[in-house]
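Q: Two folds, back to back.
A: First:
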Amino acid sequence: MTTSHRLLLGSCPGSWGVWFATDTAQIAQDYGVRLQFHPHADRHVMTQPQVERFLSDTDPQYVSLCLDIGHLAYGRADSVQIITRFPSRIGYVHIKQMDPVILAKAEAEDLAFARAVAMGASCEPPSGLPDIPPVLAALEQVGAELFTVVEQDMYPCDFSKPKPIAARSFRYLNAAGLDAADLDAAGLGAGGLDARAGAPADGGAA
């Protein structure tokens, strides 16, 4: 993505990007698909003001938010505030945490997100940001069944590393209140895990 694309939600009112998102969502809905917009580090929507403007300027009939709490934390956005202010817009959830020390270093040195991830920015819960229990409590108040993905961006990474982390994360999140299936049903028991590891360090994170 070029720098010019990051001006999607710039200072100009009536941003073409907001129009594009809504227009695309309308087309998708004609085919039975609902658009879930994903904020992302180093992209055009990642900070609190950017997310709030995007949700305020797009049509709730067509556009929902993929609440990725890790990318929002990377942009210093407050997921609990977003859930509280826009509960009906939360359509899909990514649970992820960011290491606060590496995040501060990335900010201080203006590092690309891919480089920060290679340094370990995306970390195993509950060691990072944001604090997960308040997020789960806020999502509970939404009163909707939300498809949720638990992620940790790990590249480069030895392929033996993700599965034990995934199992520990799964147990932690269940204890924290995430209503999820048992470990075997989730593929974290004896049957194994489809872990996404070794992804390219050029912006391939979800």
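A: Second:
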Amino acid sequence: MIDTTLLIQLAQLGTIAIGFLGVAVTLRSHRRQMHVQMFIEFSSRFHEVLGAMPVHVWMSFEGGGSTLPRSEELTKSCLQCFHIVANLYHLHKAGYVSQELWKPWQRGFRRTMEGPVLRQEWLAVEAAFSHLPDFCGYMRGLMSEKTALCGRCPHCRQIAGHAGEE
């Protein structure tokens, strides 16, 4: 026969285990909610910036590489876009942006930076980001055609500027 003290202790232990499980589920749920909020916020920022850019910026990928004449408004919009990318890049490197969020954004960044207009603008304003050498290398890598694993960030597939870098 099990005495009542042992039964009470088992019940308390079960209650503690269920409490820890509840805390773990809550933390996981909170983390997922934060990722969704981050995705929505940065997507909204990109939407605003992209809406301010001329359509030609997004339509000239497969063309022959025609560019727009540089203008203050285009440069301002591109700078805003590059700052958003820089923020996401550093949040990802610090572990605040999960791999699930980073992958689709990175594919979009790469596709966008393959266009001649944004290449032209990045090359013109890169000096404004000289205090972020890792980010400048990342952006130059996005403009290259070779893809490889970057040793600096073990959690993501980075675009490397050198063929054969692994």
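Q: And?
A: Confidence is low (pLDDT under 50) at residues 146-166.
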